[in-house]
Amino acid sequence: MKVVIIGGGSAGTTCAFELRKLNKDIEITILEKTNNSEYSPCALPYVLSGEIKSFEEIFIFNKNDYETNNINLLLNFEVKEINTKEKKVIFLDKEVSFDKLVLANGGSAFVPEIKGLENSDYLAFKTIEDAKKISKIIKPKDHSVIIGAGMIGVELAVSLAKKGNKVSILESKENILPNLLDLDMSEKLKKSLEQNNIKIFEEFKIKEISKKKIISDKKEIKFENLFICTGIRPNIILAKETGLKIDKGIIVDKYLKTSNKDIYACGDCIESFEFNTNEKIFSQLGTTAVRQAKFIARNILGEKEKFPQVLNNTISKIGKTYVGVVGMTQNRARGLGIKTISAKYTGTVRAEYYSNKEKIIIKLICNMKGEIIGGQIMGDSEVVGRLNLISLAIQKKIKINEIVKLETCYNPASAPIFDPLTIVADICLKKLNNAR
């Protein structure tokens, strides 16, 4: 069997190595349009800020890893055409045949239509090339303006501030991280960012960009550097030209197979299904990409595994604060007509009398059946474990009253006698009972 994978990022590379782990005989070829083997895009902000020493450290495999596993990695090979009848992938004046094809060609930075933007120097923040350019141009005391306050924009803002930049973030919606945090939680993060030389302008409508200046109805903002961080759009042109079914992303079934029985797709280029609603959403996370890639590898080799609906469980270190989110926000639930109850609690992650006073803020969201549908956590530490526990609770439809009864561990230097998660669950349960 010959398997060709288009895209050498997290999804494509994971699929290749998983295939090789499961089968030593099939032919595996990765076609990557850039000069880079797999690296971690999530690490780019931390290289830029200096928390990770160099870009070289974030590459996952070296040339020898591919050769040892008999994986043919072809760099700088951009696919021009997929011939489904002859089952060939065509690039430049060459072609490679396949029995099964995997599209893992990711997404690209979205650039909105703003008057004057086409005549302005700006950078996106998506690839290692973007990050390298940014590291070369930024200078201490520059004023950098970031359009977009999603996770990428906020992470970039912190990195630039650490480099001595004065930073302004412009967001068109009412709060930062609008797709991840509700307003009450985002306000707490906003205060933390503003203490680090980062100004935030919400509900900011840009009229025009002209001569190193952002112009809105209310004010003008001058800048030395301009960054566009307004989201990622899936790369679907190749799939469309091939005749595959697409919508906003490539359409796949529960087995991650496209409308062509011999072509699979995974990662940023496809549409996923949301756990709580079964609606189509994007899950453009490295964790989702590698999970999907492993499912595809097993299905190519004869399994029939359905990829589960997604919760978009995600975390980031923003400055000194860890921000974790899983499931639905209360705002999204409201927009879909889902009635919810929520509770929020701030506490310490160790005994209150212990010398380390690190704090955590947890928000839990449940529906009127008492099923947990979302969680948002911010803290100095100890966020990941609780976030993953909330993720499991949502997946297994564990109700809020069961979290209240959860047996938790205790040690003054490690955990408080009443875990913040059980406390916020208890508050949420009382509010739910009062609302019924």
General description of the model:
The chain has 436 residues and is an alpha/beta fold. It has three domains: 2-40 and 52-107 and 233-300, FAD/NAD(P)-binding domain (3-Layer(bba) Sandwich); 117-228, FAD/NAD(P)-binding domain (3-Layer(bba) Sandwich), CATH 3.50.50; 320-435, FAD/NAD(P)-binding domain (3-Layer(bba) Sandwich). The chain contains twelve helices and 25 strands. The protein has helices spanning 10-22, 44-49, 63-68, 128-137, 151-162, 183-194, 237-242, 286-300, 330-335, 384-395, 400-404, 420-435; strands at 2-6, 27-32, 71-75, 81-83, 88-91, 94-97, 100-103, 107-109, 123-124, 143-147, 166-170, 198-201, 206-209, 213-216, 220-222, 225-228, 232-234, 263-265, 272-273, 280-281, 314-318, 321-327, 340-348, 359-367, 372-379. The protein has a five-stranded parallel β-sheet with strand order 3-2-1-7-18. Strands 9-16-10-11-12 form a five-stranded parallel β-sheet. The radius of gyration is 23 Å and the shape is globular. The model has no long low-confidence stretch (mean pLDDT 96).
